[in-house]
Design a protein that fits this description.
The chain is an alpha+beta fold and about 500 residues long. Among the domains are: about 90 residues, Roll (Pdz3 Domain), CATH 2.30.42.10; about 160 residues, Alpha-Beta Complex (2-enoyl-CoA Hydratase, Chain A, domain 1), CATH 3.90.226; about 80 residues, PGBD-like superfamily/PGBD (Muramoyl-pentapeptide Carboxypeptidase, domain 1), CATH 1.10.101.10. Strands 2, 3, 6, 7, 8, 9, 10 and 11 form an eight-stranded antiparallel sheet that branches. Helix 8 runs parallel beside helix 9. The chain starts with a strand and ends with a helix. The N terminus is likely disordered.
């Protein structure tokens, strides 16, 4: 049995892996050691109060056995008896109406375990089932999914023309997975966009680096920035190394960036919290259904000599939210960005005798002030919206976009043009004469034939330049606000 901070998110990689993978494999804590009840094994059926059942288990399951016999012996077509049994297990978990409590057959469980490596192949996005659809939690930094324009809350309707709506999580992700250099043509439903959009992702090898650090100069002072893309096995140590390096460089303040970070190892966020959450304050509390609590505290005495801000968005989930809430409530540090995802539960995993696994929610995690952020998220102290072009997607120019067209693609084009400094005249999706002029201006400036039509070559160059604009820290309004807060606190 393993103890984990999150589950059921899937990393669309070598086998489309659970994003809770790290906690599941590495931590392996006995919950009893942390003040939580031991989860019962498969042969140890429990009652709702957590105590072992004294009734006859066989009698309680007679109805299931009778149904199994009726179906397997009387159904008009041949029945796969293993699927009947697995369906019964899945059905029980489905009645919980909890997307984080799931069943994995032996094959899926083995893929899950074998996926712990330094890299994997896939599109590089973490997903979950939400309202019956595979939904992006967050793309991994610099992975194919991010480069192709996928973003949090995108819903995947089909893969390479095959509808995946209504499939369970594991069956759906098997449609998305695939080897390096192969295409995943995804039909996407995006909040705020009327019609589905098509995004083609070229699968690739994705290294599992999780910590990136850099320094920035503001008003003659050096500020540090540490981005954490997920909480993996080596994340805490890598964070400690980066923090020490920045402190030696004499940084005047620190920005921690967990935007788009879907979470990960509970142990990793605990270790990071010990380094920066001041005054030996609470990092988080894990509370079982019986009210038992495991309290995790920082071991850092005093407070850092420099101010800290933390960047979040709606792709920041689970362990990211634990860190953000701890810095906000226990450290009085400012949280900047958008409201986080809202994943406030804890899962544990039991391996069944045939090597299949049941993952079930056993507890909730609370903030230092005992707030439960589940389905609500961590509210930023300072809410900042990014420019519209940060949300633009690559233009799919299988057929050129031309004057008098009216579509979501054209609307997306107009957002990109405006972000690059070309005025399209309007932004409602109608390819107007002004939009055509803006396209011609872009083409002429970039030594393309000024046709006013957006073909594949023009679309590709628009995307390349947009990426460069987005990567420019000066255009990152959330980062600039976080730095502004640090400067004010120093003053």
């Amino acid at each position: 049995m393993k103890f984990q901070a999150r589950t059921v998110f899937l990393l669309v990689g070598l086998s489309i892996i659970l994003s809770s993978i790290a906690t599941y494999i590495v931590i392996g804590m006995n919950p009893n050691q942390e003040g939580l009840p031991q989860l019962s094994q498969a042969e140890d059926i429990t009652k709702s109060d957590g105590k072992k059942s004294t009734g006859n288990v066989e009698e309680k399951f007679n109805k299931i056995a009778e149904a199994y016999k009726v179906i397997s012996e009387n159904y008009v077509l041949e029945v796969d008896e293993e699927k009947l049994l697995e369906g019964a297990i899945e059905g029980m978990l489905n009645t919980l109406e909890d997307p984080y409590s799931v069943y994995m057959d032996p094959e899926a469980a083995e893929q899950f375990k074998s996926s712990l490596q330094s890299s994997f192949e896939g599109i590089g996005a973490e997903v979950m089932i939400q309202n019956g659809r595979v939904t992006i939690v967050a793309p991994i930094r610099n992975a194919p999914a991010e480069k192709a324009g996928l973003r949090p809350n995108d819903q995947i309707l089909s893969v390479n023309g095959e509808n995946i709506e209504g499939l369970d999580l594991y069956k759906a992700v098997l449609k998305i997975r695939g080897p390096k250099n192969t295409e995943a043509v995804l039909e996407i439903a995006r909040p705020g966009v009327t019609d589905p959009i098509t995004i083609t992702v070229i699968r690739d090898e994705i290294p599992l680096e999780t910590v990136y650090s850099e320094t920035m100069k503001v008003n003659g002072k050096t500020f540090g920035k540490i981005q954490i893309t997920s909480f993996a096995a080596s994340t805490a140590q890598d964070f400690a190394t980066a923090l020490t390096s920045l402190e030696k460089a004499g940084m005047a303040g620190l920005v921690i960036d967990v935007r788009g970070n879907p979470g990960g190892y509970l142990d990793a966020v605990r270790e990071i919290g010990k380094l920066i959450v001041p005054n030996e304050s609470i990092i988080t509390e894990i509370q079982s259904r019986t009210g038992q609590k495991a309290v995790y505290r920082s071991t850092f005495k005093g407070k850092k000599e420099y101010p800290i801000t933390i960047l979040v968005d709606n792709g920041s989930a689970s362990a990211s939210e634990i860190l953000a809430a701890a810095l906000q409530e226990a450290g009085n540090y400012k949280v900047v960005g958008k409201t986080t995802f809202g994943k406030g539960t804890v899962q544990s995993t039991v391996e069944l005798k045939d090597s299949s696994e049941i993952k079930i929610t056993i507890a909730k995690w609370l903030t230092p002030k005992e707030n439960w952020i589940h389905q609500k998220g961590v509210q930023p102290d300072i809410e900042v919206e990014q420019p519209d072009y940060f949300k633009a997607v690559p233009i799919q120019a299988e057929q050129p976009l031309t004057r008098d067209m009216n579509s979501e693609q054209v609307k997306n084009l107009q957002v990109i043009l405006r972000g690059l400094g070309y005025d399209p005249g309007r932004g409602d999706g109608f390819y107007s004469p002004e939009t055509e002029v803006a396209v011609k201006s872009f083409q002429a400036k970039n030594n393309l034939k000024a046709t006013g039509q957006v073909d594949e070559k023009t679309a590709s160059l628009l995307q390349e330049q947009l990426i460069e604009v987005i990567k420019n820290p000066q255009n990152d309004l959330q980062l600039q606000k976080a730095l502004e807060v640090l400067v004010k606190e120093i003053r």
